[in-house]
Write a structure and sequence with these properties.
This protein has 123 residues and is mainly alpha-helical. The chain contains four helices and two strands, in the order ββαααα. The longest helix has 21 residues.
């Protein structure tokens, strides 16, 4: 069975991306909870926090690269991130667009499933 992919705009280029695995989505959720919000001031961050942030961003990079189908696009993204022509926000936005195209993000949960009534025993 062929792999399902979608084309996602990133830095003026169309990048072919595959659907993330369930495990990758769990890791993404865990990492996103640990990233600080807003502007990061180096003076306010402890060394342990800085190390954790760097480690988590490295993991995010692995996550994004696992979604990109073509090796040339992975190399291009690495070079673009290093030279600053693509920001981390743009990269994460591409992940969001990919998730939306696969129906993983932004879809309503729908009605809750009905469950059997709970019976309580008389005392």
């Amino acid at each position: 069975m062929p792999e399902l992919t979608v084309m996602v705009p990133l830095g003026g280029r169309e990048v072919e991306m595959r659907k993330p695995t369930d495990g990758a989505l769990v890791v993404l959720a865990r990492i996103s909870r640990t990233l600080p919000g807003g502007k990061i001031e180096n003076e306010e961050m402890s060394e342990a926090t800085r190390e954790k942030l760097i480690r988590n961003l490295g993991t995010m990079g692995q996550f994004v690269e696992s979604m990109i189908v073509k090796g040339d696009d992975v190399d291009w993204l690495d070079e673009s991130m290093i030279d600053g022509s693509i920001s981390a926000e743009e990269m994460f936005d591409a992940v969001r667009v990919c998730g939306e195209k696969f129906g993983l993000i932004g879809t309503p949960a729908g009605p809750a499933k009905k469950t059997a009534a709970v019976r309580r025993r008389a005392r």
